[in-house]
Amino acid sequence: MTNYSKNDVAPVPPMGWNSYDYYNTLVNEEQIKANADYMAKNLKEHGWEYIVIDIQWSDQNAGKRNKDGIQYIPFSQFSLDQYSRQIPAENRFPSSKDGAGFKPLADYIHSLGLKFGIHIMRGISRFAAHTHMPIKTHDGTKVTADQIANAYSTCAWNPDMYGVDFRNPYAQDYYDSIFELYAQWGVDFVKVDDICRHVKEAIYENEVKMMARAIENSGRPMVLSLSPGPAVIEKAHLYEKYANMWRITDDFWDKWPLLKGMFERCEVWEKHSGDGNWPDCDMIPLNVLGYGWQDPESGNKGWKSGFTQDETRTMISLWSIFRSPMMLGTDLPQLDDFSLSMITNDEIIALNKNPNQAKLVYTSENMIIWAADCPDGGRYQAYFNVSDEEQTINVKLAQDSEQGGSIRDLWEHQDLGENVKVAIRPHDCKVYKIN
Questions:
Q1: Which of 115, 128, 283, 375 is the most exposed, having the fewest neighbouring CB atoms within 10 Å of its CB?
Q2: How much of the chain exceeds pLDDT 70, in percent?
Q3: DSSP H or E segment with residue 241
């Protein structure tokens, strides 16, 4: 067991890459390494560090489903070890052979100066329960998966798992065993699915607690990220006590209405951020998306993000000033110059690392303004035009501002003087640092 605070694990919002938005369930080891290599070369110096493998990494048949329009194979017999724990599919992650699991891949990613993460579904394999496979227990008692499974607690959209019955004294042993395995592999980040939005129910709340306890028992600090949203504001205290990240939205995609709606979600959660707690606006759908939703044999490489450049800038600005975790959802080696410029602007990224939480200071049908104090005594101000028409703003230094102060445009890297009058295009934004 280790002794550390949540702020030690995630002192600032985690920044990295997640495989889901581009690869869906199909990602393999070669592709993970290619994205890690790109991050190490081009993004690490700007704060990007997590490489996260999303859903179905233990399924050997993942590449066969999409041509039939199936995302998750019902009752799939994915790869399991002798204790009912999911392990990587060797045909997709060849370095995992001979029981190595994800350790060789994690070691590779760590060698680049990056951190390694995985996605898991809440609960225990249905296949393991149906076949009465054993679990690992702390005292050697013979317990099988069906004995700790809650067959009445299932995911509405993924058929892989049963919930774990927290009333069984060996339920904690199961979670301890899987996080013990992740610690052996060198996992730094665990995204847990089918849990965040349901925590009003005891089974889900107690599974959150068991997982947090299992991470502590593993002896290895790991970021605990809960999905999907929307998170339940009435349970903010639960997320804050046991998790580092929690999704405040369902899956976020490249559509303007979803981005516009995120402003309201951020307003709800603005007082619950900091000290290792990070309300999560979800992955950033950037540049190219959706390859994994196509038939791999069709040659289709997905689609270009539906966000305009202005909307992309708005998305990055909101995630940054709100201090959401930032996980890129794309194929990094295919990033175009514009997308790369959006995620390597250190003046904008500084907002995300700001020790002071931003606040919503103005909202109307046309304009939304967020602001935050800077560590050096200045002030960040972000102006978002959420209307379909051009809007004009006037920004001035405070009357009591010391002489020599200025307004700096953080996207353009320009000092603009003491007074600014500027037109903002529809769905675009301006972000200033005012000293």
A1: 375
A2: 95
A3: helix 236-242
Q: 145 and 125 in contact (C-beta within 8 Å)?
A: yes
Which tokens hold the place of 342? Answer: 């959006």
How far are the Cα atoms of 102, 181, 272 from residue 184, in angstroms, in the given order?
9, 5, 32
Provide φ and ψ at 228, rounded to 5°: -90, 175
Instruction: Write out pLDDT tens, residues 323-339.
Output: 999 999 999 999 999 99
Strands annotated E in 194-301: 223-226, 245-247, 278-280, 284-285, 288-289
Strands 189-193 and 115-121: parallel
Cβ neighbour number for residue 388 with a 10 Å cutoff:
9
Residue type at 1 in one-letter notation? M
**What's the pLDDT tens digit per position in 244-296?**
999 999 999 999 999 999 999 999 999 999 999 999 999 999 999 999 887 66
Question: Rg of the Cα trace of the chain?
Answer: 22
Q: For residues 45 and 334, give the distance between their C-alpha atoms in angstroms, rounded to a whole number.
A: 19
Which residues in 263-390 belong to E strands, given as ranges? 278-280, 284-285, 288-289, 303-304, 326-329, 359-363, 367-373, 379-385
Tens-place pLDDT, residues 200-244: 999 999 999 999 999 999 999 999 999 999 999 999 999 999 999
178 pLDDT band (50/70/90 cuts)?
very high
Residue 48 CB contacts under 8 Å (≥ 6 apart), including other chains: 15, 16, 17, 39, 326, 328, 343
H-helix segments, 219-288 = 236-242, 256-269
Torsion of CA 153, 159, 160, 161, to 10 degrees: 0
Asked if residue 127 lies in contact with residue 62, where contact means CB atoms within 8 angstroms, the answer is: no
Quote the CA–CA distance of 379 and 371 in Å, as a whole number.
7
C-alpha–C-alpha distance, residues 325 and 283, integer Å: 8
Decide if 319 contacts 284 (C-beta within 8 A).
yes
Distance between CA atoms of residues 218 and 210, nearest Å: 12
- Show the tokens assigned to 385: 């035009």
pLDDT at 421: 95
Q: C-alpha angle 131/104/325, rounded to 5°?
A: 85
pLDDT over 90 for what percent of the chain? 87
pLDDT tens digits, residue range 56-67? 999 998 866 655
